[in-house]
Amino acid sequence: MEEFEALLNESFEMDTPEEGSVVKGKVIAVEAGQAIIDVGYKMEGRVDLKEFANPGEAPDISVGDEVEVFLRAAENARGEAVISREMARREEAWDRLEKAYADDARVEGAIFGRVKGGFTVDLGGAVAFLPGSQVDVRPVRDAGPLMGLKQPFQILKMDRRRGNIVVSRRAILEESRAEQRAEVIANLTEGQTVDGVVKNITEYGAFVDLGGVDGLLHVTDMAWRRVNHPSEILSIGETIKVQVIKINKETHRISLGIKQLQEDPWDLVATKFPIGSVHKGRVTNITDYGAFVELEPGVEGLVHVSEMSWTKKNVHPGKIVSTSQEVDVMVLEIDAAKRRVSLGLKQTMRNPWEVFAETHPEGTEVEGEVKNITEFGLFIGLEGDIDGMVHLSDLSWDQRGEEAIQNYRKGDVVQAVVSEVDTEKERISLSIKALGGDKFAEAVGGVKRGSIITVTVTAIEDGGIEVEYEGMKSFIRRSDLSRDRAEQRPERFQVGDHVDVRVTNVDAKSRRLGLSIKAREIAEEKEAVQQYGSSDSGASLGDILGAALKGDE
C-alpha cells in the first residue's frame, strides 16, 4: 500500500504536457493505415501513415520508432490524444528554416506540385512557393524531370505568422555557375585555341559553351569573307575550334574568333591583285554609294557609283548590277592598312567617247533622237549610249537660235554633223546647219574687202535696193547708191539690173556683205587720178575721167 501510494502521488506530481506543444512518442502498433503512438502520461494517439511519408515516397515508420508529434488535444471523445506528425514536422521545419534564413544558408527540398505562377516545394515539413522565374537561369518548358527530386534551394523571403516562404533554385544555379565560370576563365588565356559547342545563334553572332562558360563569337570574327548570317556556317550543337580573342576578368565576358585560326587573305592582296589588273568577282552587297565585289573569300572591294558606268551618272547601283552577279572589275587602289580595295567597273570597258571619236571624225554625219531640249540647245542620242549637243547657234544659218529651236520636239529623229569631240570632258558638239555646207562661205570664198563684184537687183525700196550675189542677199542703202547725191535715187534702178559694186565689209557672223556703188565710184576716180594725172598738172577732173574712159574703150 505504501508503494502504491508513492506511485500515485508521483503520477499526480508529474506535469502533463501542454496542448499545442511538440512531444516525443513511441510507435507501439501499425494498423489500418495508422500508427498508434504512446506519448506517455498514460496517453496514446493515432496518426495517418501518410504523414510519415515525404512527397513521392512511401511511409517510413515501424513499431518501436521514436517520433515527435504535435499534441493538439490531450483527449478526444474516445479518450485518445489528438496528435499530428505533420504539424510537428512543420514546427520543427520552421525553426530550422528560420535559422537557415538568418544564416543565409541553403536548405534542401523537393518540388511536389504546380500552382499558378510557379511550384510548391516541401522543405522537410514546411511548404514553400517557388516562382516560375526562379526555377532556372533560363525559362523551363518542362519541369517534369525536377519533380520529387531533392535539391538545394535559397530562401528569398519568409513570414512565419502568415506561413509564407518563397524560395529560389535559380540563385543556387547562378552561384554554382559563377564559381564554375570563374574556374574556367582562370584556366583560359587570350590567344588560346579551345573546343566549344554552339549553344545559341543570333543575328549578330553565336554563343559557344566552353565547358561551363559561354563566349560570344561575333559574326565579323567567323570568317574573313562577309557573313550575312551566322547560320550560313554554324549550326546549334556543332563542336568547333575557336580562339580566345579577349577576356574581361570583371564582367567574365569572353570574345571568340574562328577566322583568327586561318591565314589572313589580306597579306597577299597587293601581290595577287596589283593596281590596274582586271579580275572576275561576285557582287555581295549593293548600297546607295556603290557595290561591294568579292575578289576571293575574305577580300572585298568597293566599286563606287562614279566608277560603275561611263554613261549612267545619276543611277542607283542596283540598276546597273545585281547581288550575286559575276562582273569584271579593275583594281584602282589598295589601302592595306584600312583593308580597302577600290575597284572600277567602267574601266573594263572602252571609253565610249574615245570609241566615238575614232569612228566619227569631225565632219561625219550622224543621226539620232532628240533626247532633251534646253534653253541652250538640243541633246541628241548617239551610238554607245552617249549624247551629243547641238548649240542654238548651230541650228540654222537663216534663223536665230531661239526661233530655230521651236521647230524641234523631243523624240524627233534628226541628222547632224560632228563638229568637235572632247573625250576628257566627255562632250560631243554637233551642228545641224552644217549639213548642207556653209553656203555663205562658198559664195564669198574669193571675195574680200575692196573687191568689185556684180550683183543683181532683186527689190526696190525707199531706203535703198536689195541685191543678190551667188544666192546671198544684201542691201545697198540710198546713201551708197551713187557718189553724186542727185543720183542717189532707188527708182533709177529696176529689178533684174546688173550693177557693179565695191565690197566694203565681209561679216561671216551675220552672214552679210557690205556693198556700195558710191565706194566703187570713188575708188575708180582715185585710180584714174593716179594713172592719168594730178590736180597739180592743170588738167581738169573731166579731162582725166574722159581720158580714163577713152583708155577703157
UniProtKB/TrEMBL annotation:
Gene3D superfamilies from the UniProt entry: Nucleic acid-binding proteins
Family annotation (SUPFAM superfamilies): Nucleic acid-binding proteins
Domain S1 motif: 20-86, 104-170, 191-259, 276-346, 363-433, 450-518
InterPro entries referenced in this protein's UniProt entry, alphabetically: NA-bd_OB-fold, Ribos_protein_bS1-like, Ribosomal_bS1, Ribosomal_protein_S1-like, S1_domain
Residue ranges that the Swiss-Prot or TrEMBL entry lists as coiled coil: none
Membrane-spanning parts: none
Job of this protein: Binds mRNA; thus facilitating recognition of the initiation point. It is needed to translate mRNA with a short Shine-Dalgarno (SD) purine-rich sequence.
Protein name (database record): 30S ribosomal protein S1
Annotated organism of origin: Sinisalibacter lacisalsi
Lineage: Bacteria, Pseudomonadati, Pseudomonadota, Alphaproteobacteria, Rhodobacterales
